[in-house]
Each structure stands twice: as structure tokens, then as C-alpha cells.
Design brief:
- The chain is mainly α.
- It folds into two domains: about 5-55; about 65-99, no CATH class.
- About 60% of the residues lie in helices and about 0% in strands.
- It is built from four helices and no strands.
- It has helices spanning about 10-20, 25-30, 35-55, 70-90.
- The longest helix is centred in the last third of the chain and has 24 residues, at about 70-90.
- The protein is elongated.
């Protein structure tokens, strides 16, 4: 089993070496990565470039940021849930009516 390498940190260096005409095997030796890692990286980069050329922007990574609008909608939803639960507990005789 090979060691894991964060190939994204080597992106610029790989691009530079490829521009210089260095072979894939030599790149792998120099950067201490496997040929499979390099081939997968090149495939991903080519696919991303192709999508950008076709007008498709790459997806943003990670969780979307919370905006004021999102926070207000979440607060409104949670208040409604609390009212429904409070009413349910009151009707079932398991809660006190707090208003």
C-alpha cells in the first residue's frame, strides 16, 4: 500500500514540470508519488479545464456560508417547530401552556 499524498499541494510544481517536458516517470520520482496518483491528477485537471472551457464553473467546495437570509429562515422554521411541539404536548396532557 502506497503512502497518501495531498496531490493538490503539488499542482503548480507538476504543471511546471510538464511544461518543461519532463516525463511522467521522472515527475513521479522527483515528487515521490506513484504514476497512478499523477495520472489521476492529470485526468482531473484536464476534466476541470474542459468544463471551464465549456462554460461550466467548478463547484465550490465545503459547506455554503450562512447568510442573514438563511439564518432568518432557519430561526422562523425552528420557532414554528417549537410552537407545534408545544401545542402537541399541551393537547396530549404532557406539557404546560407557556405563552
Amino acid at each position: 500500500m502506497g503512502k497518501w499524498t495531498n496531490i493538490k499541494t503539488l499542482k503548480r510544481e507538476i504543471a511546471q514540470l510538464r511544461l518543461e517536458g519532463i516525463s511522467r516517470g521522472e515527475i513521479c520520482e522527483k515528487l515521490k508519488i506513484t504514476i497512478k496518483q499523477l495520472e489521476n491528477h492529470i485526468s482531473r485537471c484536464n476534466r476541470e479545464e474542459k468544463e471551464i472551457a465549456n462554460g461550466k464553473m467548478p463547484k465550490a467546495q465545503g459547506r455554503p456560508r450562512k447568510t442573514e437570509e438563511n439564518i432568518e429562515a432557519e430561526v422562523k422554521r425552528l420557532r414554528m417547530e417549537n410552537e407545534l411541539l408545544r401545542d402537541f404536548l399541551w393537547e396530549s396532557g404532557r406539557g404546560s401552556r407557556l405563552e
